[in-house]
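Handout, section B. The chain below has 265 residues.
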Amino acid sequence: MCESEARDGAKAFEERARVISNAYVGPRLYKITLAAPKTAAAICPGQFVHMLLPGFGAHILRRPFSVYDAREDGSIDIIYQTVGEGTAYLTEVEPGAECSVIAPLGHGWQTHEGKSLIVGGGVGAAPLFMFAQQLAAEGRDFDVVLGAQTSDMLVTRADYAKLLGRDPVIATDDGSLGHAGFCTEPVREALAQGGYANVYCCGPAPLMRAVAGIAADVGVECWVSMEKRMACGVGACLSCVVETQAGKRRSCVDGPVFNAKELVW
């Protein structure tokens, strides 16, 4: 796991990683575990890896994936959702296969003083888990709100509950578990009660925009992870540009984590 915040933005390297497991965990959701000791030691919460899929000759471009967990045994977990040909192909990659990863990439989550609220929408809960681990290890006060379309898509719920020692606040679009509707309502209720200094959010852009607005209304700082499609992952191709108050910035090297008030939504 990342040794300190000073490692954030460290020089990237390429590593040959071996697939340990690659399993279905929920509707269109999979978790792949890689043996990647250099990456596991260097990656910081909120950073990502750029993966070249093994044997996928149809596409030569790498794909960015956030890291869900990194362990001292040198393995990392990535939770991904099937959205196209590349991720569909990835579900068929078997243990023992090797792939190339470039890591650590991007600037991730940073701790700030005061109580924090972590908000993960859908698969966006995955890039926040390492940060939640860091907050817990440092003895910081924080709560977690998780949202998903259905209860069986809350694939990170058990890990967050174990870390917190209690269930996170849950919202499901279909009402199958927790609050019936979007997780923005539990976020609004939590922030209205006061006591929070920071919000950290990752999920679909409409969710992050809404959460950022709620936080701004009550004067709470909010950080979001602007995950974009990337071709190069190192800032050269400009395919992941984000509009900010200071002009165009690149999600892959200037982010993916930004202070929400910097963004032009």
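Note. Helices lie at 37-42, 85-90, 126-137, 157-164, 184-192, 205-217, 251-254. Compare this with the example in section A.
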